[in-house]
Amino acid sequence: MKLQRKNRLRATAFGALAVSGALVLTACGSDDNTKKDATGATSSQTSAAASNVKCDDAKGQLLASGSSAQKNAMDLWVKNYMAACTGVEVNYKSSSSGEGIVAFNQGTVGFAGSDSALKPEEVADSKKICKDGQGINLPMVGGPIAIGYHLEGVDNLVLDAPTIAKIFNSKIKKWNDPAIAKLNPGAKLPDKAIQAFHRSEDSGTTQNLGKYLGATAKADWPYEPEKKWPAPGGLAASGSAGVASAVKQTDGTIGYFELSYATSQSISTVKVDTGAGAPVEATPENASKAIAAAQIKGTGKDLALGLDYATKAEGAYPIVLVTYEIVCDKGNKPETLDTVKSFLTYTSGDEGQKILSENGYAPIPAEINAKVRETVASLS
After folding, report:
1. Which of 31, 55, 124, 277 is deepest in the core (most CB within 10 A)?
2. Which fold has domain 2-142+327-378?
3. CATH class for domain 144-289?
């Protein structure tokens, strides 16, 4: 729990962020009396970050939408970027990966955020918008998918892949189930019904959780990894913010969402028994150990990654996602191209990536990120 407390203090230092819907995250108390802006960052932090932004020929308004998992990072990026580039407005609508890709392929946004790489049919659709080119995946945000829970009296919960699969597949229905008890000797598990929350809309976070469960608990999770929630039963909520809010508010609940939603709301997270020497906690550092082993599986300028969800490496947290920014390799809209390149140059740069580790995310490994920067510079 010391590490969770450390993560909460990190969230405090940089402020809790507004999230989708009616939910507003309230920043924790701090001894720092430096003046803070609406997102919680101090004026000195904003100035320091803004000083590293190169605006180049950025101008006007840039619309983007998609993944809610990267919203907290995007909020900070947008704030710092707009502080440096006066007269430029970047508007990122946090919805879902599926909605972001649809908006991109309809030509209504300059780029989309997605927790899963484009499918072949989505690439084909993108060619209608990307004149003489196609949509490509640029890995920009990494991090753990936390399994968050709310269970009074239990603040150190260990689960393994089969148990997680059975909980979300409605096969394990009580918190004192023998399978959970075996993984948590000595814990006072109540005879209480489990309320398992999943995403109501198509979600790349859902798909990445499905990839993990399919790779590690196939017998208990027989579904193909899709953005749409596949299992029977359970309860649904909209966006990572909605799932986190539901877990925060109700005893006996469990759900999945990007780690910053857990740290900013002080939601307890599951340690995962991967078969390594010790259960692994959801932290940016532990997620980085898993993401560092990723291989580029895309071709040409496409930088889609292949992740090893079944890793048993010591200290590697296996339930990870990489969020991509979807852009055209060629044929980006002329009126927003310069702003897209300028903004993504900042997010993939040293300062933009540094923000990630300070706010519950994992930076993209340096070797892969170098290719992202090269690709952003070549967009046309």
Report:
1. 55
2. D-Maltodextrin-Binding Protein; domain 2 (3.40.190)
3. alpha beta
